[in-house]
Specification:
By secondary structure, this protein is α/β, with parallel strands linked by helices. It is built from 11 helices and 7 strands. Helices cover about 40% and strands about 15% of the residues. The longest helix has 16 residues, at about 240-255.
Length: about 260
């Protein structure tokens, strides 16, 4: 129904593909009422039609993060916003800092619309990007714990820059993507100090959990259930877990209380 774009560098296949209906069934199994869908660079590129269709058919279950061109105009952003999109994705880890050198005006337009800039970085990248992000006034959603360099430790400049964003009170961090930066297999023990540090600095009112389903480019099998259980073990406080899993995303992303 939604063919891949002709010019994309990577096309998901096999277990990397998941339909909206299957995902809703998966959420139902785990008692999850809402989810934030993130348009990938893979497959569709800047074509958001598949995600927008899922949001529409979800009838309030989903919100979205779109892929947009670096020169996207204000009206284009407003049109997406009217279809359930709350922000735009910037995959610096994949495309590099140079690709995003000129996004300052776009960040300001997102800020004017009250939308998020979801930023996926790795290693030291946030140390270079943070000044532009902060200057724009945009709401920030840091993907995958900032994908820190675990070989360099918590004091590494990129991770310290991510911690520094918390003081802006405009930044939110996704406690997710452990397999993307851990040097160890499940349960990714070397990632847990980073999760703990982020939770302490940002607080549960600015942290959300994410699965990264259906795990594009995963080097080995990952499953929604074990990752959710790992989060529960890593955050043993029931009140904090409830805030991260429900209250914070409901408040930040505009989810209503209606069940699936």
């Amino acid at each position: 129904m939604f063919p891949y774009a002709a010019d994309v560098a990577y096309r998901p296949v096999g277990q990397e593909i998941g339909s909206a209906d299957y995902f809703r069934a998966l959420l139902d199994v785990h008692g999850v009422r809402h989810a934030l869908l993130v348009e990938p660079n893979s497959g569709y590129g800047l074509d958001n039609r598949c995600m927008l269709d899922a949001i529409k058919r979800g009838r309030g279950v989903f919100k979205g993060i779109a892929m947009v061109p670096n020169d996207a105009c204000a009206q284009y952003l407003r049109d997406l916003q009217g279809q359930g999109v709350i922000g735009a994705a910037f995959n610096v880890a994949l495309l590099g800092l140079d690709y995003y050198r000129s996004i300052g005006p776009l960040l300001h337009r997102l800020a004017d619309n009250g939308m998020f800039a979801q930023v996926q970085v790795e290693g030291p990248q946030m140390a270079h990007l943070a000044p532009m992000l902060l200057d724009s006034g945009v709401r920030l959603l840091v993907d995958h714990c900032g994908r820190p360099d675990v070989a360099r430790g918590i004091d590494e400049p990129g991770f310290q820059a991510i911690l520094g964003l918390a003081s802006s009170r405009r930044a939110v961090v996704k406690l997710s993507g452990f397999a993307k930066f851990s040097a160890q297999p499940y349960p990714f023990a070397d990632s847990l100090p980073y999760l703990a540090e982020l939770l302490q600095v940002y607080g549960p009112d600015n942290c959300v959990w994410a699965s990264d389903w259906p795990f594009l480019k995963a080097g080995y099998r990952l499953d929604y259930g074990p990752l959710l259980k790992l989060f529960e073990v890593a955050v043993p406080d029931v009140k904090e877990r409830h805030e991260i899993l429900w209250e914070t995303p409901r408040r930040l992303f505009g989810f209503q209380t209606a069940s699936m």
